[in-house]
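Subject: sequence -> structure tokens, single chain

Hey, anyone have a minute? Need the predicted structure for the following. Not urgent.
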Amino acid sequence: MPNRIFSSVAFFLTVIFLITIPVMAHEREGHDEDIEYVLFGDRNYKNTHPGYRNKIQAIEDATYLCVDQYNGNGKKELENLHKEKIPHIPKSIDEFDFKSNFAHRKYTHRGWNVIYDEESHWDIRRRILNNTVDKMLFSEVKSVFDILPWNSEAELYREQCEAFCELLYYIHIIGDHIEAEKYTALAYVDPLTELNDRDNPGIIPDLISCLETLFKSQKNTYTYKELKQELELLMDRSDKLVSSTGGVNTDEKFAEYHQCSEELLEVLAAYIPRLLQKEEFFSKSFA
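Reply:
Had a minute. Here:
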């Protein structure tokens, strides 16, 4: 009987430990630094370029509200977006908040194009990010005729705005991959690749697709082609690990998989700033 009681207590304590163990993730500052690193090649760009600080802060706040807001957090960020006069966004956190503990990622981290549970309010979250990016980056280049359905230039900007938001989303998710110390810490997080899933093939395939839209006018340039090649090489490496027998189920496999996520951020930071500077919406916003 004592042994049985001891075993029951041990099992109970184990369960408590498993459900309360913290999930390793980037702190907010780390995610913001990653955004600046990929967009400008400088993790401290916001502080060294004070003239653009408000614009960058708004984009970072909107990304946080889209991906990482839950349990009533984010009031300061939403207030900041209201100060920046971002149109058609919620007046209160309560309009898109959800309650969660360690599993909040299942509501927002499984991919940009995933159909989430209604509780996640994913349509509102995407709208916050989309409207912020549109106001901060595209307002200076959009034509006064952008409401006309046959205006091809306006349609291009709408597509670029959506693609830019998707890029911001995946920068955040890549940060969570980099922070993870083991593969199980990535539960509910979109994998680097999942090529067997046609609906949600993973971070790198989605990035390749959205960057094709974002840099449509540069698809034939050497810089873009080199970026795409680097992404495809990383996609092949990570897919071999994910699709291997048992998946990423050993320390050795995880070390290699983790290396792919670190290299992915470095590849983006090496090419994206150069490509963005040749896009009118970006060069005019950060002249």
